[in-house]
Specification:
This protein is of the alpha/beta class and 481 residues long. 30% of the residues lie in helices and 14% in strands. It contains 17 helices and 17 strands. α2 crosses α5, α5 (112-130) packs across α6 and α6 crosses α7. The protein has an 8-stranded parallel β-sheet. It has a domain at 16-329 and 463-479: Alpha-Beta Barrel (TIM Barrel). It has helices spanning 31-39, 51-60, 67-72, 78-88, 112-130, 149-158, 174-182, 231-238, 284-289, 304-309, 319-322, 331-343, 373-378, 408-413, 427-434, 459-463, 471-479; strands at 19-21, 44-47, 137-142, 163-167, 187-190, 193-194, 203-206, 223-228, 247-251, 294-297, 314-317, 348-351, 361-364, 390-393, 399-402, 440-441, 444-445.
């Protein structure tokens, strides 16, 4: 099957969506959900985080519906596809009691095989999300998860992604990278490295032509929407001399997943949650005056009119989509959360310790998950996916990798501080379990850790007694407010 590069026309030039479906977790915003949202005329956003690992687990489970292999038939280099399938695909699926074969962990200089896998996986994800749609499709990545981002972006662009949304850090280099990838040119990203010497810089590099040797057409340059929490950061991103930022998602501390740390540090409530105040509220008038479109996120399910009155182009909504029929969460998690919402017993904690990143992380309190101290204490620490590892400079000048969630002795050997390990949870493995792809260990499948925004506490008004609902129900509700 011959490959045709997607059209260079970006649908976002013609119409901006009122609703952006949040790019959530590891495959919570799966391609099924995104495709449905885009078919309904709003912007769906796939999660690109750790998708190379998720992708090979789907292949090892036999790719039951055949969609990943079908998407790969459209990838421009079928030799790459053959190598991936030969290594990871298992006809009929692996024995459910056997562990998944792991892919490689990213390093500053990743292997050719890992780059090919990451490009192809993100291509397949976006291809399926866009298939048969006229609405825009974006991809969400985390600035904190730096090492896979270059290959992930290029793979998404090969499939014609319309927008890139990135937060959990300061994504100041991304616009220029998108410009270069549109021309299949190499790009570099400055890495965040602990213990680096003053003025010492480390980069990751990616040359598209190492994966696609003879590209013959320019790619569509996706729009770049930075996910930020402050007007100060918005202004800083617009001062970048290279690359164009096309808009902002202004995300408040009630949104799910990672939250920006509060500006005033060291203040916690009686539950140990960080306290946010007026300093943490973005000045929307200042953002409006910048002249770029922006969307408001964090408890805006029923506030579209409010957002528009501030001059926003619309809203980003995650939590309501996370528990709809089309999302990638397991049915067990969806039903347990919905039962808790209807019973009025659902609880959510902004945990300042859970994430290895050091960012506060929203955690739904669910029985049998790592939100319970007893369940967390029983888990043996292991770091075998490594997306949230910290890069640090060793005394010899070389880079190494450590994670506050890895075995404590290993973290200390690498110069880490024991205090940093307290309460840390392995989000990489836990979020895989939330979407039914948890690793099998000797003592069972990895425990889940579910996130959601504070909006989950108010979903009862939306549910109106229902125990399940669709993405269309979410969109209809938002548009009616």
């Amino acid at each position: 099957m011959s490959f045709e590069f997607p059209p260079a026309i970006n649908s976002l030039d013609e119409r901006l969506p009122l609703i952006i479906q949040g790019g959530m977790g590891i495959n919570v915003s799966c391609w099924h959900l995104v495709n449905r949202v885009a078919r309904l005329g709003e912007m769906g956003v796939v999660s690109g985080t750790a998708f190379d690992s998720l992708f090979i687990r789907i292949l090892q489970d036999g790719d039951a519906d055949g969609n990943m292999r079908r998407a790969l038939q459209h990838f421009p280099d079928q030799d790459v596809v053959a190598r991936i399938l030969d290594k990871y695909f298992i006809e009929g699926g692996k024995d459910p009691d056997k562990p998944y074969q792991l892919g490689e962990m990213f390093r500053q200089v990743p292997s050719q095989a890992l780059l090919e896998l990451t490009v192809a996986a993100n291509f397949a994800n976006v291809f399926l999300a866009k298939e048969g749609t006229k609405g825009p499709v974006g991809i969400n990545l985390l600035e904190k998860v730096q090492l896979p981002n270059l290959a992930s972006l290029y793979g998404a662009m090969l499939a014609g992604v319309d927008a890139v949304l990135m937060g959990a850090g300061i994504p100041k280099y991304i616009p220029a990278i998108l410009d270069r990838f549109a021309l299949h040119e190499p790009a570099s990203m400055l890495l965040n490295v602990e213990d680096a010497l003053p003025d010492e810089k480390f980069y990751s590099h990616f040359n598209p032509r190492t994966v696609l040797t003879q590209p013959d057409a320019e790619l569509k340059r996706p729009k770049f929407f930075a996910i930020i929490a402050s007007d100060v950061l918005a202004k800083m991103l617009l001062r970048r001399p290279e690359g164009e930022t096309n808009g902002f998602v202004i995300e408040g501390p009630t949104a799910g997943g990672h939250n920006a740390p509060p500006r005033k540090k060291g203040l916690f409530n009686e539950r140990g949650e960080p306290i946010y105040g007026g300093l943490d509220e973005a000045d929307l008038e200042t953002i409006k005056d910048l002249g770029l479109p922006f969307w408001l996120a964090g408890s805006y399910l029923a506030k579209l009119d409010t957002a528009l009155s501030y001059g926003a182009s619309g809203v980003q909504v995650g939590t309501a989509f996370a528990f709809c029929n089309e999302s990638g969460l397991t049915d067990d998690i969806k039903q347990e959360v919905i039962r808790g919402v209807l019973a009025g017993t659902i609880d959510i904690v902004t945990d300042p310790r859970a994430s290895p990143t050091g960012f506060p992380f929203k955690v739904v309190q669910l029985k049998g998950t790592l939100s319970e101290e007893t369940t967390y204490a029983l888990r043996s620490r292991v770091c075998d996916l490594g997306y949230l590892r910290h890069l640090y400079r060793k005394e010899n000048g070389k880079l190494d990798y450590r994670c506050p969630s890895e075995p404590v002795a290993a973290f200390l050997r690498k110069g880490g501080i024991e205090e940093e390990t307290v309460g840390r949870k392995c989000l990489c493995n836990a979020l895989m379990s939330c979407v039914g792809q948890g690793q099998v260990r000797k003592d069972g499948v990895e425990g889940a850790l579910q996130t959601a925004g504070d909006e989950v506490l108010r979903l009862g008004a939306f549910l109106q007694g229902r125990t399940s609902y669709s993405a269309k129900d979410v969109i209809d509700f938002i548009l009616a407010t």
